[in-house]
Amino acid sequence: MRYGDKVAVDGLSLTVERNTITAVLGPNGAGKTTTLETCEGYRRPQEGTVRVLGLDPVRQRRDLLPRIGVMLQGGGAWSGVRAMEMLDHVARLHAHPLDTAVLAERLGLGDCGRTPYRRLSGGQQQRLGLAMAIVGRPEIVFVDEPTAGMDPQARRTTWELLDELRQSGVTVVLTTHYLEEAEQLADQVHIIDRGRLIASGTPEELTRGSSATVRLVVDKELPQAAEAGLRASIDTWSAEHGVGVRSISFGSRTLEDVFLELTGRDIDHG
Ligand SMILES: Nc1ncnc2c1ncn2[C@@H]1O[C@H](COP(=O)(O)OP(=O)(O)OP(=O)(O)O)[C@@H](O)[C@H]1O
Description:
Layout: E1 2-3, E2 6-7, E3 21-25, H1 32-39, H2 61-64, E4 68-71, H3 83-92, H4 100-106, H5 122-134, E5 140-144, H6 152-167, E6 171-176, H7 179-185, E7 188-193, E8 196-201, H8 203-207, H9 224-241, H10 255-263
Parallel strand pairs: 3-6, 3-7, 4-5, 5-6
Antiparallel strand pairs: 1-2, 7-8
Bound molecules: adenosine-5'-triphosphate (ATP).
Residues 3, 6, 8, 26, 28-34, 177 line the site of adenosine-5'-triphosphate.
């Protein structure tokens, strides 16, 4: 996918299994939104092929649209419309929508149903966007940065909801630049950077390495002398067992470490 001379998505090839959550992970500008918009039929790729549920998202858009749900990054609601009006409107466009009152309550939108869209907080707008994406009982839902701007509580609720969707047979494709989100939620993670796919796998596969990390948690702050003693004990133990200790680290290998290793950059400071 190119915008003028700018290559936004470059030879990206990936497949999504049904009934799974797939995370497309990458820093700002990596090409995540462009990838989703291509799957949703909003953009026609200059090269390559895209199939969603076996259909061409541009040429067979009419057949595809009723079967997919889309949560756009920009919200997708009119600024003056009340939250529940918007959700009810979208529900009426579908043949067998979910109960909007139940869905709104589940997403914590019960108290702001009469609030105009532009007056909703960022997190509420996100949750309304998610409700609009799933109200039509889609087979596959594309969600762009579903928890951007949400507080931790709302983020957790959204993760639970996405997990429930998967359990009920919905396929979820989400973009995120939150490593924790991909790690917690996704069955498959595709890491993209500068429009290219740089790694794919389950969170476990991606964080598994040739080295092991031993994490030691102690119940009080260590005085400096104790730390030196601990290091000396580890040296003795490692010499006895023929194990080379590369570093002593306080934490497990995360997707953040993987991203750093692959790109040499921090995901939040791309
Ligand atoms: N309409 C457009 N015109 C020109 N360039 C664009 C357009 N949309 C995106 N781009 C560029 O294409 C690249 C990929 O953008 P894209 O929005 O797909 O990335 P992203 O990974 O979704 O980023 P973010 O996390 O910030 O949403 C970026 O360099 C961006 O500046």
